[in-house]
Amino acid sequence: MASKRSLSFICQNCGAAYGRWQGKCEACGEWNTIVEEGGTAPAAAGGRRPGKGRTFALEPLAGETHDAPRLPCGVAEFDRVTGGGFVRGSAILLGGDPGIGKSTILIQAAAKLALAGHRAVYISGEEAVAQVRLRAERLGLSNAPVELASETSVEDIIATLSEGKTPRLVIIDSIQTMWTQVVDSAPGTVTQVRGSAQMLIRYAKKSGAAVILVGHVTKDGQIAGPRVVEHMVDAVLSFEGEGSHQFRILRAVKNRFGPTDEIGVFEMTGLGLREVANPSELFLSERDLGSPGTAVFAGIEGTRPLLVEIQALVAPTTLGTPRRAVVGWDQSRLSMVLAVLQAHCGVNLGGHDVYLNVAGGLRINEPAADLAAAAALVSSLAHAPLPADAVYFGEVSLSGAIRPVAQSAARLKEASKLGFLRAVVPDSARDGGEGMKLTEIGSLTTLVADIAARGAQEKRAKGG
Ligand code: TYD
Ligand code: MG
Fold it and tell me: pTM (2 decimals)?
């Protein structure tokens, strides 16, 4: 006789549940992600029988509110991203590729906090205590009174944490290795991850400890399996970087208690992650001066100005459909800039492959980068290096006009601080930037004409 318990088939990508197996998940469109999981669905996992509910007190909207009490961990770049520290009782999901440095940054943060006299607990489900110790030793943190354990049972973890003084910070590395008795599917499945996360988050709210859950990221950038966990936690941070670079960027994807546009910049060294207080210097450090196709963009990340190099390569194509490849910028913005160049400035790149890259592995979302990207593209096409002491910022509109952007004073100040002497800016960016020579341009046509003139000059100088 078949088991009475209904078996559910759960998509491991998005958590959608089905009554039978199928190849494609209709909810998220992924193939081969549906797996049979036995046991109770987490919604019914509370353990209470259906029937009469328990009453609870309703509260007025007006009432005493306490400002979220925060605890800075002492790693300034980390605190910048969380919005000034860990909020009491909050749950944070930290996602990132394997090997990017999640465990490293968390042990460093926990150690700082513990050294400041707060109770910090680090639970590793992936590594043995000895391995975590070894890493701490390598980082020179062995003397920090962090409490360690290698555990995977959520019930045991919560029981242990509930004893003694409430910890200020609990790190669970990683949520995919945790399992709870409430749900009887295998660890790592969506149901298990969701059930475990739910219990740990409930523990955070009840006890007032800040809980950080580490989550692995799948190849396409999703935090593996439980997208649902993203909705359950108060903040989602993502730790990014490129294998070939030492830079690591911590970014808030969601934050109930702080900004989502701040980034924290770190450098992976032999002694762990080092904070980079002045990222512009770092991003410009490998600059290739005097070659065509590079422009320095004066950007803003959150509240902080950030200078970064935008590199373009425009080359005649050998393909029927020319390539458009972008790293670190929005593909559709590139298409738009190319269309505006073609429609309004007579720059036709239909027969060229176009590559655009933001140096240092940074990802830019600002429309203010349009002008720098356009400058780099035209510079590459015209074989005309841009002035090495110039920065660019401005939004390109579909009409070819250069639109002003926010915080131009801060951008110019940062550029001036780093020794830049010139800025190519939208018309109304007059303020700020003492000692900077501003070239105000109203339309993209002006920029193209300027760069083309430089190219012609260069050619003449080389020829004669
Ligand atoms: P880790 O924190 O284990 O990554 P994650 O937890 O995200 O999987 O970091 C592992 C990588 O970091 C590994 O490739 C080695 C490198 N690393 C250093 O370069 N220096 C260091 O001091 C440490 C601890 C790690
Ligand atoms: Mg790890």
Answer: 0.77
